């Protein structure tokens, strides 16, 4: 996925909104598969990610979960029905 290259750039400092967008785009692109959290972090973060970057990624998951756009089942993350419907409306 081309967008992921942006998020793997170690020199980029992404806002919380950009992290939420990155996580949601990634999870939607993987649908219907639910993705292990570790695999998602590996895809979105550079190998040498510092605590702040890892924490921002985790905050994005927490924020998207609290707004109903993600579902988490143990260590698996997936898009909620609301997120899928919004994506369908946006691309229709």
Q: What is the radius of gyration?
A: 13 Å
Strand order of the largest sheet: 1-3-2
Which percent bin holds the helix content?
Answer: 55-70%
Structural class, judged by helices and strands? mainly alpha
SSE string: HHEHHEEH
Q: Provide a count of the helices.
A: 5
Q: What's the CATH architecture?
A: Orthogonal Bundle
Categorize the overall geometry.
Answer: globular
Compose a concise summary of this entry:
The chain is mainly α and 92 residues long. It has helices spanning 2-7, 16-30, 37-44, 51-66, 81-91; strands spanning 35-36, 70-73, 76-79. It is built from five helices and three strands, in the order ααβααββα.
Can you put this structure into words, describing what you see?
The structure is a single chain. This protein is mainly alpha-helical. It has a single domain (2-91), classed as Orthogonal Bundle (Arc Repressor Mutant, subunit A), CATH 1.10.10. Helix content is 61%, strand content 11%. The protein contains five helices and three strands. A three-stranded antiparallel beta sheet has the order 1-3-2. Strand 2 (70-73) and strand 3 (76-79) form a beta hairpin. The longest helix is centred in the middle third of the chain and has 16 residues, at 51-66. It is globular, with a radius of gyration of 13 Å. It starts with a helix and ends with a helix.
Strand and helix map with partners:
Blueprint: H1 2-7, H2 16-30, E1 35-36, H3 37-44, H4 51-66, E2 70-73, E3 76-79, H5 81-91
Antiparallel strand pairs: 1-3, 2-3
Helix pairs in contact: 2-4
